Amino acid sequence: MTGVILCGGQSARMGTDKGLLSLQDRTWAQTAMEKMIGLALPVVFSVNEQQFNNYAAIFPVNQLIKDNPVLDTRGPLRGVLSIHLQYPAEDLFVLACDMPLMETAVLKQLQAQFEKHAADAYVFTNDEAFEPLCAIYTAKGLSRILELQKNKQLLKHSMKYVLEQLHPVSIALTMDQKKYFRNFNAHAELNGL
Length: 193
Known about the structure:
Blueprint: E1 2-6, E2 22-23, E3 26-27, H1 28-37, E4 43-47, H2 52-56, E5 64-66, H3 75-86, E6 92-96, H4 104-116, E7 121-126, E8 129-137, H5 139-150, H6 159-164, E9 168-172
Parallel strand pairs: 1-4, 1-6, 4-5, 7-9
Antiparallel strand pairs: 2-3, 6-8, 7-8
């Protein structure tokens, strides 16, 4: 399994690259990487073409995977499928960089489900809605999504829709775990961090 930090968003509402924002002398991308390293996983970063040089100044180039221009998708799905194309046999543990409050213990809970159950994906639910940007997507499941995309049968590009096309194992978040899934999209939301 490979850990994937999703950094390739446009960060339009934030006005600056969220993965490069700092929290306690670390970028959000570095913070997310440290959580993944706590799972003993190798880590790669999903970035877009415009971000590549900024991330290459911080991380080794071999850890950076640019969005594949052949993919007719957008958003996080484009990043996930780009990494799947690069590592087609690898299951991917995906974590968005804009969840800086995430804890390794929560990620380990998902990893434990992966080790216990056979499924296409493993994901938390928050009030019965998927949390798709902190999830494990198997190589088998991603191959199916790639086939749907190639055959123009993937009707939506949202990660929640992708999970609806797969057979996931889901874990309901407890009330005290919900704070770890808070993502930040605007400067006003950063107060108290």
